[in-house]
Amino acid sequence: METTAVRGRLTWQVATVTSVTPETGSVVTITLDPPDWLGHRAGQHLDVRLTADDGYTAERSYSIASAPGEQVAITVERLEGGEVSPYLTEDLRAGDELELRGPIGGYFVWEPADGGPLILLAGGSGVVPLRAILRHRRRSGSEVPARLLYSARTLPDVIYRGELDQGHDGAQVIYTLTRSHPSGWTGHTGRLSQALLAEAAWAAEANPLAFICGPTSFVETAAAGLVDLGYRPERVKTERFGATGGR
Amino acid sequence: MDALDGNAIGGLLIDVFGTEMTAARSTCATCGDSRPVAELVVYRQAPGTVVRCRTCGSVLMVFVRAHGAIGTDLTGLASLSQPDRP
Fold first, then answer.
1. Which residues in B lie closer than 8 A to residue A237 (C-beta atoms)?
2. Which of A43, A151, A200, A211 is such that its CA lies 20 to 30 A from the CA of A225?
3. Which ipTM did the prediction report?
4. CB under 8 Å, gap of 24 or more: what pairs does B33-41 form?
5. With 70 as the cut, is the pLDDT of residue B1 above it?
6. Domains annotated on chain A, with CATH
7. Which residues of B touch A45 (CB under 8 A)?
8. What are the domain boundaries of chain B?
9. A100-113 pLDDT, tens per residue?
10. If you measure CA to CA, which chain B residue comes closest to A214?
11. What is the pTM of this model?
């Protein structure tokens, strides 16, 4: 504990909210200015703590949406009946304060030296840490081939669509829409299948590195599917956030 | 209640162990399954957190916050191995 305190990495601190930007109808990105931030790695998260007037506290963990070196940002999806996300997505304004600690996590992280090729598999708001990885890849000048397979309910539910459609220095983005799709949609539809996985994933012979983030069922399907395709289990990193998109 | 995975308790594990532990390798004392802590099954319901084996479902770790302390039960683990240079 002493070491942690000396590093100052996990002390709760009060950050100032510098912006709240809608991403979709139910998702916002919140940029934060924590007074004591030693930098984060792509894929890490932070803990947010809300305290009610009566002292009741609720903690949630959110993936960091920005790359190392960029301002700290989280992207939050509103969950109906949630304790924390309705406040963050509907009430929080620039200039407000937010209690947080981080960065946290040493498993679901990517460094350029980890290589690739990278296959990133996102279910819903599971795209958030993968976007941080894509941004880190671009900002660090990494030439590792990268591909993102993103499963969303509908096209308007796609988070960061403008950014993803612009491309990330050659990173390919493949969508599959599970609930409905616009007329004339020529992309994939339906839930992640082994056929789609086989089509989108790099050949196992290239020793790819996979990051999978999403609801538990999505992550299990994707991880088992990649191993079936010959991926080495230790090169398949997973992060699950339950059935509802919050953690 | 939705199951999370070990990534979600990185902060709690730093509170308990004083260092990042999600990349540490756990071994289940019941079935011997070995995998990173990040991949274990986690149920969070204040004030307690229960961590289960992804293969056999045995309880590996329990953490309970009360009275300003964290009670920790690790009896379900055979081992917990931290990489030398995380």
1. 38
2. A43
3. 0.91
4. B36/A107, B36/B6, B37/A107, B37/B6, B37/B13, B37/B80, B38/A105, B38/A107, B38/A108, B38/A237, B38/A238, B38/A239, B38/B5, B38/B6, B38/B7, B39/A238, B39/B5, B39/B6, B40/B5, B40/B6, B41/B3, B41/B4, B41/B5
5. no
6. 13-104 (2.40.30.10), 112-240 (3.40.50.80)
7. 7, 10
8. 4-77
9. 999 999 999 999 99
10. B4
11. 0.93
